[in-house]
Here is the input.
Amino acid sequence: MTADTLPFWLNYQASEQPVKVALRHKQRGIWQEKRWLELRHDIASLVSALQAKGFARGDTLYLLSDPRPEALLLAIAAHWLGGSATPLDPNAGEADTLSLLARLQPAFIFAEGQCQVDLALKLALKPPLIIYADARGLSGYQQGVLQPYAQWLGAANAGSISPPIAQAHDDAFVFFRLDPQGQVERLNLTHHQLLNQGRELVKQERLTSQEEALAARAFAASGHLRYLLAPWLLAGFTLNFPENINTRDIDRRELGPTLVAGTSQTYQRLEALIYARLPLPGTVRRAFLDWSLTAPAQTKPWYKLFAYWLTIRPLRDVIGFSRTRVPLLVGEVLPEPSAAFFAALGIRVRNWPDACDWQPSPNSPKPKHVLQDSYLDDSLTQLGAQA
Amino acid sequence: MTARNPLLTLEHISLSFKGVKAITDMSFSVAEGEICALIGPNGAGKSSLLNVINGVYQPDDGIITYDGEIRTAMRPHHAAERGIARTFQNIALFKGMSVLDNVLTGRNLKVQSSWLEQAFNVGRAPKEALVQRQKAEEIIEFLRIQPWRGSLVGGLPYGLQKRVELARALAAEPKLLLLDEPMAGMNRDEKAEMSRFIVDTQREFGTTIVLIEHDIGVVMALSQHLVVLDYGKKIGDGPPEAVRNNPEVIAAYLGTRH
Here is the structure.
């Protein structure tokens, strides 16, 4: 029996439903699709390329990126080789990220674009291998340590890779953070843990391969790996990536996902988005809208229908929840008024725990260098130009 | 002024408006692929010079050599056809149109199909529309304005409108890009962002850029070549370091002369 790991499930989906759409990514205004078989082929290319660069069992790939398919596929390629992936919070400050990276001394980094590459190059350590997705602004950089992701996809020997060597109890993802005293803490998630929690979600929410999920949040939150990545591989539905983090609300509206996994902040931001578009209090339109949202149970059915088509449905459209069947809230619960607001829109947010067991991390030396910043040096990427 | 071939050379250009001399005997070259900044106090003739380069004003005297073509004057449409695009000091966008539509207007000169084909969406028109859209999307991605793709330009913040104007200019795939105060009215962060876009434009597309900017810090960091104007005359021309130490430039900027 092959190990119960993330790469195993990817292989499984590629054989069971090879032509079904596995991933969608909006690029230059158009949703680009990848089928499960294509995905497996891409991962095989990445496995070959990673292996050729010396990535081996026990190694870690650090992800400096907002959610995008390249980061996800590289993470699975790292798992394939028995390694793990460490997503770093893209919203963390530059100084915090650098401080953390300086202690972790990464050897393999996936950097989304020029900003992240600049960040990685600031590490005054042995230069890590940096794989980048967005080549914009990087043409003047020395290409020695920089590897374009697009080039890796064309690896010639992609078809001849060996089966995944990861084991169920290997770490799939390892998270790091600095505690208030500046000590590094870690959180390990094994393949087994991720898949078990994913199975629980698939079972309870009756997820099928027909779901459409949007990966708008970074995988830097472990809950999103448990409740989005693992169920995606287990149920074989379609995972959609927005064009970028700033277009996620527009893209969600276009797509109308059936499965949404967000945090309390996500839902509160969406609530604010709706409130920003509501008519001013005291107007007739606002009064009708308030009545629609709070219509008592004994209201006549056709009045309710009227309210649904004129207010509730358009409001759900605004935030891209027109088809949402499974709205998940990962971690911290929603404040009562927000929960009531979503309930009034017919969106019953289900809370799933983001239980985390952070442990002090051994072997994390203090950074040996001082990180400096300067105004236009940064802006104009002088560092990159010199590299 | 550099080892590279000059893309643009102005020789003895003079321009006057009735009795007012706006530019007097101006000569300098802009090398292919460089960022050249025109600096000088208000009224020094910087914008007039840009208008001469892209044919909005016809000089009284002098010769312009652009991409091997020698002319005493150039009309704006000819300048656009020859690969000169520009942005304006006061934003000149179609405020009632979306960002995407504004960027697509920059592709007008690249359209081959006739108006009849476009009206009935036949012949070359459908395929061409896709190509133009794709090119426009590339620029939209390059300048990171995807979230506002469908938004009306009139409702966007000033800094973003400046970026859309740059996008429209880049959509024309220019060889020479003229930027008239691209960072006017921007805060520090917006300036840094716009600076990055300008540098990336030069690096990624190899576009030659002539820009007017008042923020000396930005100018020094951005450009490889400075031309300093004062009262319509050139008082400095060279790399930023050399110009910074030029006594005449220091005098003009520190106000000891006037």
Observations:
- The radius of gyration of chain B is 19 Å.
- Chain B has a mean pLDDT of 90.
